[in-house]
Write a structure and sequence with these properties.
mainly alpha; flat; 144 residues
């Protein structure tokens, strides 16, 4: 008897995920302590400096939302990367900070434009009156 998967259930993956290369690999690609460390054999062979760089880079990207904004809660953690010893990490952090400033400026501009647009709309109407067909001409004129 074949059991069908329910539509909301995910297919279970076989293997492990490697945090370093961000791939989902079969168990055979993980050797020794690799299962516990979530580090595949090819990433275990990398020099320690490269693994440290990848770890710090992933920590840096965790500070940024999908929209490219650095929230206030993560600013203190993010500022640590701006003074990082590795110049590559500093460069990535500076690029992310510029993108954050541009995105915040765009959002502020959009918000100002919305406020200017919504200032023209008259919102002083009774919520109970939801259909203009039931209004008298005088009441309808008062909302214009």
């Amino acid at each position: 008897m074949v059991r069908k998967r329910k539509s909301k259930q995910r297919k279970k993956r076989n293997g492990h995920s490697c945090w370093c290369c961000d791939h989902f690999l079969p168990n055979e690609r993980f050797g020794g302590k690799g299962h516990r460390l979530h580090l595949c054999k090819s990433c275990q062979r990398l020099p320690q400096e490269e693994r440290d760089f990848r770890s710090e880079r992933s920590n840096l990207y965790r500070c940024v939302t999908w929209d490219g904004i650095i929230p206030k809660k993560r600013r203190k953690q993010f500022n640590r990367f701006l003074q990082h010893a590795n110049p590559k990490i500093r460069k990535i952090a500076q690029q992310l900070q510029r993108e954050d400033q541009l995105e915040r400026a765009r959002l502020n501009r959009d918000e100002r434009e919305f406020d200017e647009f919504s200032g023209d709309v008259n919102l002083d109407f009774d919520i109970a009156v939801y259909d203009w067909r039931w209004l008298d001409d005088d009441e309808l004129a008062s909302y214009r």
